[in-house]
Amino acid sequence: xxxxxxxxxxxxxxxxxxxxxxxxxxxxxxxxxxxxxxxxxxxxxxxxxxxxxxxxxxxxxxxxxxxxxxxxxxxxxxxxxxxxxxxxxxxxxxxxxxxxxxxxxxxxxxxxxxxxxxxxxxxxxxxxxxxxxxxxxxxxxxxxxxxxxxxxxxxxxxxxxxxxxxxxxxxxxxxxxxxxxxxxxxxxxxxxxxxxxxxxxxxxxxxxxxxxxxxxxxxxxxxxxxxxxxxxxxxxxxxxxxxxxxxxxxxxxxxxxxxxxxxxxxxxxxxxxxxxxxxxxxxxxxxxxxxxxxxxxxxxxxxxxx
Length: 306
Fold this sequence. Notes:
Strand order of the largest sheet: 2-1-3-4
Mean pLDDT: 88
Number of strands: 8
Oligomer: single chain
Strand content: 5-15%
Helix content: 40-55%
């Protein structure tokens, strides 16, 4: 995974965008949670495309020739940034001279100021999972709103209204996470996951992030690290460890068994089976899946052993 220098956050986050008149813009999003933000902000005003498909993994996704054709037709490409789209430099080169503009949400105005110190550390270390923090999701949505208003000024009021409604829902989600974690004693708030997806989330809500089995998805550690993780979980008396939707839980279950922990499943929003993705309205996808995480944590931690 590419390192992401925090200084990049201070640079302009997209190039000047042309007005489209009455035509709705064509907007491509890099993967599912970004597509959900785009849908919530845009309503039905745009032709929306998602590059990394349901069931795909944004960590190892690379655009196909068909994807590049899609990109060449797009007015705007929206990416998370922070290094998760490792293909972005190549794509930017291929799109040079074409109409497509790139909106890198890691450089969104307001995002740096909204980040916790722990999140700034995660960014410096190349961890890209900013989208799992609902507070930062608000800044991502605002940046998308501003880009769409510049692309399609005739419908700026629609984008403003859609975004205001979405921000209110994100505020409610954030408040519910805070209320849950405020109700729990410190020993319950220890988070151990399959891959290193949740340090941003943990930093936002003051959780003790114990780490993960895998530093990167599907890259299993060696026997020495596995033994150390089991020892660590036993010493911390961790009651529940968290698998992740779309990734094999086999090794995590083994570690849980040997450490005496239960297993629950969180959703990183990166991967979704096609049937699951099709069952969720895209504009509500982020909110519904994050609320499922809220309920998973509530059930796991309110019933955890002392």
